[in-house]
Amino acid sequence: MSEAVLDVPQGLIEALRNARHVVALTGSGISAESGVPTFRDAQSGLWAQYEPTELATPEAFEADPKLVWSWYQWRRELVAAAQPNAGHRALVELAGRVPRFDLLTQNVDGLHQRAGSCDVVEYHGNLFRDFCSARCGAPDSIASAATEPPPCPRCSALLRPGVVWFGEAIPSIAVDLANAACAECALFLSIGTSSLVWPAAGLATLAAANGAVVVEVNPHETGISDRAQYRLAANAGAVLPKLIDLLLR
């Protein structure tokens, strides 16, 4: 365990202990600790010849739906083999220790839910859901195991992976829920995210503007590192259980 984890500021523990409303935003870093490849790391092996924009846009799906579907099925297999880590589990425990807790994630792997988190706001969708590519209003469904994109049961357009692709807007319900939570929280945790991808990158600023204490958990410096009141330069799997332990003392 790194020195940064062992030397958690007492002021942070008191802020967490006194916070009536905590928001956590997680990014690919917490999933990487479970062995989930980042989006660009998934461009390996047979898929190394493709750029992400060739496999993750509405235009790519329209041009070659089977190719895009195959890549996402491969990603689903990789993610399904991963397990939630200590960071995921610590957030479940934290949710039970504060009066109000909102979990926002940029990840699409569902590991927070598998760890036991409820009501997760998924900014970029979920890899294990499908929805109609024509957006006909048919409800989302559990991801199909088919080798080719199956037809929508309502309109017969092809189903597609339930994630946000390049050039697509973040679902308005996720944006509204996240913005409302960040405008009201007392403490904001930025965990394993580069704070470069908008609009999620602006959530820490929104929370700070409304008086929240901003805490960053990340071994690497990011776009908000110089603006966080507390920065813990280590992985979530080491930092978050330590925070819980100190909170309970």
Descriptive overview:
There is one protein chain. 35% of the residues lie in helices and 17% in strands. The longest helix is centred in the N-terminal third of the chain and has 16 residues, at 65-80. It contains ten helices and nine strands. It has helices at residues 3-6, 10-18, 28-32, 58-63, 65-80, 86-95, 111-115, 172-184, 203-209, 236-247, and strands at 21-26, 100-105, 121-122, 125-132, 141-142, 159-163, 187-191, 213-217, 230-232. It has a six-stranded parallel sheet, sandwiched between helices. It has a three-stranded antiparallel sheet with strand order 5-4-6, covered by helices on one side.
Strands, helices and their partners?
Layout: H1 3-6, H2 10-18, E1 21-26, H3 28-32, H4 58-63, H5 65-80, H6 86-95, E2 100-105, H7 111-115, E3 121-122, E4 125-132, E5 141-142, E6 159-163, H8 172-184, E7 187-191, H9 203-209, E8 213-217, E9 230-232, H10 236-247
Parallel strand pairs: 1-2, 1-7, 2-3, 7-8, 8-9
Antiparallel strand pairs: 4-5, 4-6
Helix pairs in contact: 6-10, 8-9
* Helix-strand makeup class: alpha/beta
Strand order of the largest sheet: 3-2-1-7-8-9
- Count every beta strand, where a strand is a DSSP E run of 2 or more residues: 9
- What is the global morphology? elongated
Give the termini distance in whole angstroms: 20 Å
Radius of gyration: 19 Å
Would you list the SSEs in sequence order as H and E? HHEHHHHEHEEEEHEHEEH
For the largest beta-sheet, the strand count, sense and barrel status come to: 6 strands, parallel
Count of runs of 4 or more consecutive helical residues = 10
**Which percent bin holds the helix content?**
25-40%
DSSP strand content = 15-25%
Q: Low-confidence parts, pLDDT < 50 over ≥5 residues?
A: 1-5
Average pLDDT reading: 92
